[in-house]
Design brief:
The protein has helices at 3-31, 37-61, 67-70, 80-91, 97-104, 115-147, 157-178, 185-210, 216-240, 246-272, 282-304. By secondary structure, it is mainly α.
Length: 305
């Protein structure tokens, strides 16, 4: 892996995943009951730590990251700032919107072969590995206690497992970067499509369960997307076994994710404008939209390969 690739891939990874991790920490924090103040404090500490990590990533990324990353909508969307402000209003948690403002103003850059920057990125990756490792352990502990009925949280057990898998993906990609391992793009496509199709299916299952029972049309649409992405997950796994062409799975996944993005965009707008009845926190609606945007960028890259 060249120095240029190492720097650009590392920073792009943090701009997306450090924000995802800080929001995971917030979702955990906001879902505990007052009895579990210790867990609230632990989750809040991780949220603040990832705020710091993301701040550092944003400051290092200006004039460095690729335009396709910045324009994808995976770093911020047009709704992220409003979603954060609404979430602050509803929860009282002090989410630093200045990070979002800075991320929205990032400029793209060309080659990055600066040894000093490379060293700073290397240290950022090491800091992230330590931080995400700690968050993984917290999520494992929470999930274990929920499944053994030793802990109650407003988060679905599947959601806790879901965010645990995302943290492990972030960790594995950081480990690959730190070992300067070249990516086998076809193998990467197999693994990423199987992973993200499952994630997309689960997003819609969460949405289905968090919508007000009177939102019948939206519930049915979310359920249909969940079933569609379950099928795409199965096809991606069949592609790994060479029983289905990967190109077909990529094409089908890209089309389905673009349709899902339109549904999620309407959902964010409807929640922010108080037109959708649900118990979906605004930041969660924007969170799943950013993950779809990230996946679309990956699928586009696989299609071109």
């Amino acid at each position: 892996m060249t120095s240029n690739d190492y720097i650009k891939q590392s920073l792009a990874l943090h701009l997306f995943f450090a924000r995802i991790m800080k929001e995971h920490s917030f979702f955990l924090e906001a879902a505990f009951t007052s009895k579990d103040q210790n867990l609230i404090n632990q989750a809040d500490a991780f949220r603040r730590a990832f705020d710091g990590l993301l701040t550092d990533a944003v400051s290092l990324s200006n004039g460095v990251v690729s335009q396709d990353v910045l324009s994808s909508g995976e770093v911020v969307t047009p709704y992220t700032m409003d979603a954060e402000q609404a979430t602050i209003f509803f929860t009282g948690v002090a989410i630093p919107t200045s990070i979002t403002q800075s991320a929205a103003g990032l400029a793209a850059g060309g080659a990055a072969n600066n040894p000093a920057l490379e060293q700073r990125v290397h240290q950022l990756n090491e800091d992230a590995l330590k931080l995400v490792g700690g968050l993984i352990q917290l999520k494992i502990s929470i999930l274990t206690n929920v499944l053994s009925c030793k802990l109650f949280t407003m988060n679905y057990p599947l959601l806790i497992d879901h965010i645990l898998r995302e943290a492990r993906l972030y960790q594995s990609m950081l480990q690959r970067l730190q070992s300067r391992t070249d990516v086998n793009l076809q193998r990467e496509a197999f693994e990423q499509e199987a992973f993200w199709n499952r994630i997309m299916a689960e997003h819609m299952k969460f949405v289905r369960g968090l919508l007000d029972p009177t939102e019948n049309d939206l519930i049915m649409t979310a359920n249909e997307f969940g079933n569609q992405f379950d099928q795409l997950t199965a096809e991606a796994r069949q592609a790994m076994d060479r029983t289905v062409p990967l190109s077909r799975v990529t094409s089908d996944s890209l089309q389905a994710t673009k349709e899902l993005k339109a549904f999620e965009t309407a959902g964010v707008q409807g929640i922010l404008e108080c037109r959708i009845k649900s118990i979906i926190i605004p930041l969660l609606a924007d969170h799943v939209l950013r993950e779809s945007n990230h996946y679309i960028r990956l699928l586009d890259s696989f299609s071109r390969a």
